[in-house]
Write a structure and sequence with these properties.
The complex is a heterodimer of chains A (391) and B (160). Chain A folds into 2 domains: 11-39 and 288-389, Aspartate Aminotransferase, domain 1, CATH 3.90.1150; 48-285, 3-Layer(aba) Sandwich (Aspartate Aminotransferase, domain 2), CATH 3.40.640. Chain A is 41% helix and 13% strand. Chain A has 13 helices and 12 strands. Chain A has helices spanning 11-15, 22-29, 48-59, 72-86, 101-113, 130-136, 156-160, 185-197, 254-267, 273-285, 287-310, 335-346, 372-389, and strands at residues 35-36, 96-99, 119-124, 140-145, 167-172, 201-205, 230-235, 248-251, 323-324, 348-349, 351-352, 364-367. In chain A, the strands form 3 sheets. A 7-stranded mixed β-sheet of chain A has the order 2-8-7-6-5-3-4, with helices on both faces. A 3-stranded antiparallel β-sheet of chain A has the order 9-12-11. Chain A is globular and about 60 Å long. With 160 residues, chain B is an alpha+beta fold. In chain B, 32% of the residues lie in helices and 21% in strands. Chain B has a 4-stranded antiparallel β-sheet. In chain B, strands 5-6 form a two-stranded antiparallel sheet. In chain B, β5 and β6 (145-146) form a beta hairpin. In chain B, α2 packs across α3. Chain B is extended. The two termini of chain B are 35 Å apart. The chains are: A alpha/beta (391), B alpha+beta (160).
Amino acid sequence: MSVRARNPTSQQVNQLAPSGIRRFFDLLASMEGVISLGVGEPDFATPWHIREAAIYSLEKGYTMYTSNLGMPELRQELSRHLKDKYKLDYDPDSELLITVGVSEGLDLTMRAILDPGDEVIMPDPCYVSYNPCVALAGGRPIMVPTNQENNFEISAADIEARVSDKTKAILIGYPANPTGAVMPREKLAQIAEVARRHHLLVVSDEIYARLVYGVEHTCFATLPQMKENTILLGGFSKAYAMTGWRIGYAAASKEVIAAMTKIHQYTMLCAPIMAQVAAIEALKSGEDSVVEMVEDYNRRRLVIVKGLNKIGLPCFEPKGAFYAFPLIKSTGMTSEEFAEKLLIEEKVAAVPGTAFGQCGEGYIRCCYATSLADIEEALARMGRFVGKHKK
Amino acid sequence: MLKEILKILENDARTTAKQISSMTSTPADEVAKLIKQAEKDHTILKYKTIINWEKVGEEQVGALIEVKIAPQRDVGFDAIAERIYRFPQARSVYLLSGTYDLLVLVAGKTMHEVADFVSQKLAPIEGVQGTVTHFMLKRYKEDGEILEGKEEVKRQPVIL
């Protein structure tokens, strides 16, 4: 007779909403010949010089733990990088923490800053882990609806209307997953003003910072008086095609980094040394590869946005990341129905907008980090699908 | 814009003006016009394909030939280089710094064919002082393309 522990899983985890598209994933896994626009990662392998640096480090025996904060050389390079790019001064010894991707950075941030019941204001739709990370840290996510009419930008006024005495932070991620939206500097400045007025922290997930097309990315910490109160999260996954290496960083005040480091040292110890060595190489000489990849993404972006609009799926122009977020309401289907039917009937995988929040209803996310030939074929199949189902 | 078009074509010469038009947000006739112009002024020299002939059982022999030459008054190396590059067997011809002067890439069907070209055509040219022929044993990468075992993207079908 087996003896089962009582209540094997915690209340908190039980309350966490399960991913609504589990069924969809399982279905996808069983099919052949599918063109996937569902993958949120570059289709490039990591540039060879970066891989080679990591291989060499293994040969040289770099296989140990590093400092909890991350290798000093990496923090110095990163400090230099942030200075070059944004004219920001972060002390490599106390204001930077190397994390296992932005995912860990986000988790550490929330656990370091939130007390039970604290509220974090964030846009809807947004990246899938924002909401659960806040909830797991005992906080309450407060969603601010955004829409296509406003280019999926979160407005300062909407944020301010939701500020309460429990509000601790504003969490934003621009360029945005899933919409590809980029916030202009003046609108971010308005958010900074709200943060200053109400003494709030701003957590800015800038993992897609390097993937912008024809516009400038604004680093939130560069806004007047915001460096002190911004927790900047960044990483190597998207810009350098290094998703599987799991390497990112947090840049913030000494106080916040110290708090995050406490949790990091007890739970993660340090980011893998191999990935840290690769990240040093990426920062030192990865610029050309980034520029080349961005040029390439831009061509595909123009193709998919034009194509989606042409087949009757109106799509606002995403200025960043590598996602298009077209409206599918003309078919009368919900996002989930659309994604599931599209997969079954035409073997094209896209992610229903509702995976990213209620305001994603009526949209699907199409990642264009895939070959042009696949994008064109996917557009042809989707065109056929829309023609058939148009109401 | 022309540079952007050239970059796209250098990577895949089959990309149509229409495709380039949507990749660059430029009208297709404008793209076509720029390509025509580039062809006319020899910015675009030729559209070619990189083929792994071994796949169809076609043996090909390649050789790198170092050529030492005596430069001539007024024309330097150019006149002799021209005598060499006019032969269709010479696929690429470069003037180099260092221990020899010209590097000639030659392709032929058999070793004999290549050897004949060197001994009967190239070496006897007036001004050619000596040649060293290196036969290629294996091609790993050509014009930026890896011939065997090219890397493929290995991704999960859905990642959020």
